[in-house]
Amino acid sequence: MSNGDSGKRSEAWLVVALASATIIGGFIYWDAASRQTASEIEAEVRSVGYANTAREELTSTCIANELSAEECSEKAEETYRPKQRDELDLSAQQTMAAWTRAMGLAALVGMGVGIFGLGLIWRTWDATRQAASNSRETLNAYIAKERGYVEATGAEYIDVSPEPLRPGVIINLRNVGLSPLEIFAINYKLVPQGTWDPDGMSTLARRKLIPAGEDREIGALIFTEFSEGWLNGSVEYTTLKNQKFKAYFCFNVAWQEMGGYRPDRWSITQVYPPAMPSNF
C-alpha cells in the first residue's frame, strides 16, 4: 500500500469515526432529553391528579362543615402540596439520573474515539517511519551502486629525505567505483609475516581526490625501523553524501638479493590474508 493510499484510508476512517461519534452523541442527547421530558410530563400529570383527588375527597367535608370555597381550597392544598413536592423531587432525581447516564455514555464514546484516534496516529506514524526507512534503503542502495570504491593496487619502497634517509613506502590506490572519492587518512603497521593486526597503527593524514577509474600514489608511509614482514593497513575515505568508508590492504615485504645482476632491493607484493576485512 502506498503512503498516499494509507493516508486517504486513515482520513476516511477518521471521517467515519467522527460521523459515528456525532450520531451516537446525538442519540445519547435525544435519549436524555426524552427521559427528562417524559419525567416532567409524568410529574405534572401526577401533580394535577393529586390536586383533583384532594379536592374531590374534601368536597363533602367542606359542605358538611359549611366551609367557604377559599377555606376548602386551602385545606385541599395542604393535602396535595406535599405529594406534589415529592413528585417534583422524584422528577428532578430522574432527570439528574438521565443526564448522568448520558454523560457516562458520552465519556465512553469519547474514550472509544480517543483510542481509535490514537490508533490512527500510530498507523500514520508507522507509515511515516516505514516511508523514511524505505527512503533510507533507497538512498543506501543508490550510494552502494554509485559511490566510489578504493583499492590498494601496489606499493613501492623509497628512501625518504632529508638526511639521514628514512625508509618509506608509497601506496598506489585506485578508484574502482563510479563516483569520485577523497582519501583523508592511511593507517599502517609493519608486523611479522603471516599476521593481520589492525591495532596500534600509525596514521598518515593526507587528503587526495581520486576521480572514478583513476589511480593516485599516496605516501610516503615513514618507518623508524624497516624489516621483512607484512605491511597491514587501511585507507579512510569519503564519497557520495560525505559518507565515510574504510578499505584494507596487506603487502608482503621481503629483501630480494639480485645476485649481482642488479642492486639488491626491497620487494613489496600484495597478499590477501583471510583475517583481513573485505573492502566491499
List keywords for this structure.
280 residues; alpha+beta; 6-stranded antiparallel sheet; 3-stranded antiparallel sheet; 9 strands; 27% strand
Summarize the helices and strands and which ones pair or pack:
Elements: H1 3-64, H2 69-146, E1 150-160, E2 166-175, E3 181-191, E4 202-204, E5 208-210, E6 215-222, E7 229-238, E8 244-256, E9 265-270
Antiparallel strand pairs: 1-2, 2-6, 3-4, 3-5, 3-7, 7-8, 8-9
Helix pairs in contact: 1-2
Question: In summary, what is this structure?
Answer:
The protein has helices at about 5-65, 70-145; strands at about 150-160, 165-175, 180-190, 200-205, 210, 215-220, 230-240, 245-255, 265-270. By secondary structure, the protein is an alpha+beta fold.
Q: How many runs of DSSP E, i.e. beta strands? A: 9
Q: What form results from the Cα inertia axes?
A: rod-shaped
Span between N and C termini? 33 Å
pLDDT below 50 for ≥5 consecutive residues: which ranges?
A: none
Classify the secondary structure makeup into a structural class.
alpha+beta
H and E string: HHEEEEEEEEE
Tally the helices: what do you get? Answer: 2
Main sheet specs: 6 strands, antiparallel
Whole-number average pLDDT? 81
The residue fraction in helices comes out at 40-55%
Rg (CA only): 48 Å
The percent range for strand residues is 25-35%
